[in-house]
């Protein structure tokens, strides 16, 4: 038998090793195409990360509701006075098959101071079709109320409301470095058909409600409204304070209204805020009768 050189033995050992690995010995040099380009041989890498068991307890729903009630109370206690521009727009024929169009728009400056002082001054009122003197004005009024409490946002999350509503966590979302909870609520009794149900978005930094969506199973005013499809309320942060930003609603009436039709959209916007500036008493002082008549005559 002829003797093999050391180099030949090494080559045979390498070829056998490649064969055991499932790759033919000739695969060491990749095939080439007719143009001389080499075809790359790709290897896929796999990796795994070990599971980590988190033992920190998750905040319960009851604790979240307590924190929301405390956060809303703290937000309210920080506000002493505020002023803002209130813009109300009404779009008629919103969902009755006709072309939607802006019917009217009003802009007012509102001043509010605790405990229950409010003053509003209308700056502008625009109509798509100015009414005649004998015709009733197509006006949708939005009142600011006599206080600075925002029950329209937190009515279902006040401590007294825990007996009337039931809640569940609808979702959790990460926003930056904190968590946003979506909490759904509905009347505890199925007989409360006029009470709303909906969802709120809660910021876990301050535990205040940033957004709320409300719907009604039955119209709260059945003689006038056929349905209130959706009510959305949103807040904005002004400095260190959370205040109202906008309110959106679609209303369907039981009978068509002149210029509005049988459905209209209502949009209320709150802008140009000043907060805790120490509003003077003169803003809330009632005008004297003579001056009041002069102001009405000048308008």
Brief synopsis:
It contains five helices and ten strands; from the N terminus they run ααβββαβββββββαα. It has 299 residues and is α+β, with helices and mostly antiparallel strands.
Question: What features would you describe in this structure?
Answer:
By secondary structure, the protein is of the alpha+beta class. The chain has a single domain (61-274), classed as Clam (outer membrane lipoprotein receptor (LolB), chain A), CATH 2.50.20. Helices cover 17% and strands 40% of the residues. The protein is built from 5 helices and 10 strands. The protein has a 10-stranded antiparallel beta sheet with strand order 3-2-1-10-9-8-7-6-5-4. A hairpin with an 8-residue loop joins strand 7 and strand 8 (225-238). The protein is globular and about 85 Å long. The protein starts with 5 loop residues before the first helix and ends with a helix. 15% of the residues are buried. Residues 1-28 have low confidence and may be disordered.
